[in-house]
Amino acid sequence: MATVKELKATARPKSGKGAARAERRAGRVPGVIYGDNQPPVTISVDDRDLRQRILAGRFLTT
């Protein structure tokens, strides 16, 4: 049975290349959530947490 793991993300007030680079310098991974007929939401995720989830395996499988 599949389980859903939560990944904490924070909303970013600014978008664009400069804001994304600032997030990376701060140790965060910038991203955008699209869909459900809603406007896009810019987010950032802690780099360390994301790497741990990916390296643990089965992160990208459905």
Structure description:
This protein has 62 residues and is α+β, with helices and mostly antiparallel strands. It has a single domain, classed as Beta Barrel (Ribosomal Protein L25, Chain P), CATH 2.40.240. 29% of the residues lie in helices and 32% in strands. It has a three-stranded antiparallel sheet. The longest helix has 9 residues, at 17-25. It is flat, with a radius of gyration of 13 Å. The protein starts with 8 loop residues before the first strand and ends in a 7-residue tail after the last helix. The model has no long low-confidence stretch (mean pLDDT 90).
Name its key features.
flat, 3-stranded antiparallel sheet, 29% helix, 62 residues, single chain, Large ribosomal subunit protein bL25 L25 domain-containing protein, 2 helices, 32% strand, ribonucleoprotein, Ribosomal Protein L25, Chain P
Question: Can you give me a brief rundown of this structure?
Answer:
It is built from two helices and three strands. It is an alpha+beta fold.
